[in-house]
Amino acid sequence: MAESLLSPDLLRRLERLQIKARRRAQSALKGERRSRARGQSVEFADYRDYVPGDDLRYLDWNLYGRLDRLYIKLYEEERELAVRLYLDASESMLFGEPTKFDFARRVAAAIGHTALCGFDRVAVSVFPAQEADLAAYGALRSLRGRAASPALLRHLAGLRAGGRGRLNEALRRGAIEARRPGLVVALSDFLDPEGYEEGLRALVGRGAQVTVVHILAPEEIEPNRFGDLRLVDCETGATQEVTFGKFRLQAYKKTLRRFQDGLKGFCLSRGIGYVSCVSSEPIEEVLFKRLTEAEVWG
Amino acid sequence: MSFLAPAAFVFAAALPAVVFFYLLKRRRTTTLVSSTLLWERFLAEARVSAPFRKLRLHALLFFQLLAVSLAVLALARPYLPSGAMLQGRLHVVILDGSASMQATDVSPSRFEAARKKVLELIRAMRDRDRTALILAAGHTEVKQSPTSNKARLRAAAAECRPADAAGDLTEALRLAKSLVRDRPDARIHLFSDGVTSDLSGFESQGLRLLYHPIGVRARNVGLTAFEARADPEEPGRAVLFVKCLNASSNATTRRIELYADGRLLDTRAAELGPRGEAAAVFALPVNRPLLARVRLAGSDDLAADDEAWAPLAPPRPARVLLITQGNPFLEKALSVLPNIRLAAAPDMPEKDDFDIVVVDNVIPRRWPEGNVLAFGVAPTNVVRVVGSLEQPPIADWQASHPLLRFVRLENVRIAKAVAAQPARWLLPIIESREHPLAAAGERGGRRWVWTAFDPLESTWPLRVSYPIFIANAVQWLNPVQRAGAQRLLRTGEPFRCPLPRGIAQATIRRPSGAEQTVEADPAQGELVFGGTEERGVYTVRFGTNQVRFAANLLSAQETDLRPRPELALGRHAAPPSVRRSFVDLELWRWAAALGLLILLAEWWYYHKRTV
């Protein structure tokens, strides 16, 4: 199952990457991330005056020799980074060849595997919830350590998509539930009639480092059905009548570009990373180029 | 621009229908999509989502409205009146009524088909248009002077009947040309099969002549010649010469039947190649007046040329008087001629009961009242002598004249002749450089042949042309022969007959049985009857006399039924158009064609956008 999501070769290449955290880790648990907390590591952070009770091992004897004053050397405490992945499993993600959902969970698996290899904590939040997958959701709620990577891949591969996804609600709830902000990657097509702004705003407000992976199907980029159409929304059941011909393709693309630009502009103005991709393109292109450029990892 | 059918603008109601259909929703294919979000935005931007929407200028709508407008315009039959808007246009319709128009290759006949087209043209006339109707049958006749009264025109067209005579459209075209003079907008419509005499003498320059050709084929065999002569070797017998022509491009065989007074006497098979001719000679004894009839057995497209009649009478020898001082050449030449009774005298006797008087260089005591062949002399009221000619050369002669048939004069030398001015009715037949050397003519039923020289003062009597000329002259002057010739006419030719003194009218019974009384000019002493368009046997009664004559079509031109798609007019003439439109500047075809193009463009545009 794991092999079906990411090849061993791809997994090996991903292991050489490291999740980039623009902010200091705020986890309580020790890890390999620099944090604001002072503690024991090799990274010198600052000096402070000695007060009785301090560990004498951290006294800077050279400074004492020159200044005749006692200073304690402070080191950055390395803590773990919480990486939270929001995976859209709504009905609309089943479009495209391969489906947008497949593409999204492969990207999620890649990020999760990389994070786990970096001793970061990974949590995968899938919305909307499928009753059959509740066990997998539980297993994906918190994973840590490289050893958890096969479980991550297995559970991701076993997920199903369907129903109506409420993006705003899922992100907002995730922002509230997260104990520490950490790194957030939202993988969705963002084609929610209720919008995405509220959810993303909540995540940013929580202080998370958010990256948006916007996945569209090829037929959404360039529709291939023409004529007099009655379009039915697979999630909401809403219908829309349209007369569509090649002559209107440019106008449609313009609308799509405006939508993508709207999302991108919203993200960039709030320090959210934005990665746009099509479900049919090679995953390596997205992982090693697009996500690297977006500084998700490096 | 005006309209022939303005009521058709009712169809303009189709315009709102186009708009209505444009507003209607279309039948749509249901398609499941991941989200309608993008489409809603797209439609919101394109503003095409509502079932009824605000009417916007759209190329397809424009195409459709244009197509419907053009269709309505075509139905309203617009036309461009050229110039004379107020007085309307002048149409001159020539309806060909020649014998060939009786052909039945077009049902029921070419003439009826032409009449139908004429009636259609009359129906298509505008109220202000004026139309004249000319029937070009045996004679050209204006059946209706220019009028806008359609009822009168229809009645005139209904009155028209085809004749059995050969057609000559030149006269009709000239008449039409005179009618449309100074009317540049006028049109001449010629409804004909084009079977007519040579039209190259007619210049149609500047005329709007529209030729409506009629006829599809030429499956026809017809009699083209029928002559009856007395047998030179056996005076009591007549020889009938018959010739027929096959107008078709296929070979055929027809049987020629000879009837005498309704009794079948003889038949001959005539084998005719494609467009070929065949001849047959019949001989029959004529010991009493009888009516000979030849008939082509079988049927073809034209019946008018399948029969010919000839009233025959026992031949009577012509009485010829030769007034001469002695002329062995002339006496010999006359004595060998068949069927004449020759008498010779030095001067004109008191009793003048000769058919022909030959005056050989002698001035008679009194000039004869009958037919005269005069050598070297003539009364001054016939020929005025102005001088003399020494060795006048023969510059020209009318080889086509019956008198000079088979006569060649190159080797004739003349020593002396008189320079004379013959009376106007005498036509020169042999000419020197300035003066005629021989003339011939007819006046008051008398024929004259005159030569300006004594043949004995020339080498002519030594030439073979001399006895031929004498024979031709006697035949031409012979009233018996002429009466025989007069009994055998072609349809359309006038019948002439000398009337006894005191008789000024005659009753003529036509082949159809209709009788007609004809007044003759007593001063002329001759009956002239021109109404011979009907083929068959005519009976003329005057006083106690009764004469029969036959009028036969006998026209190779009419027998050759091949329809002519074009008419060869004069040198400067552009070929007349072969259009079948009745109102020539009608624009509906253009409007309809443009409408069709617009529809095609609309179809193309629609598919270009949606596929």
Spatial strand order of the main sheet of chain B: 17-16-18-19-25-24-23-21
Estimate the helix proportion of chain A, in percent: 25-40%
Evaluate the radius of gyration of chain B.
36 Å
Number of helices of chain A: 11
The major β-sheet of chain B equals: 8 strands, mixed
Reading off the top of the CATH hierarchy, the class of the domain at 318-482 in chain B is best stated as Alpha Beta
Terminus-to-terminus distance of chain B: 41 Å
| Mean pLDDT level of chain A | 86
> How many distinct helices of chain B?
11
Give the biggest sheet of chain A. 6 strands, mixed
- Elements of chain A, N to C (H/E): HHEEHEEHEHEHHEHEHEEHEH
Strand order in space, largest sheet of chain A: 6-5-4-7-8-11
General shape of chain B:
elongated
Question: Roughly what percent helix of chain B?
Answer: 10-25%
Radius of gyration of chain A: 23 Å
Low-confidence stretches of chain B: 83-87, 578-583
Shape of chain A: elongated
Kindly, what is the distance between the CA atoms of the first and last residues of chain A, rounded to a whole number of angstroms? 27 Å
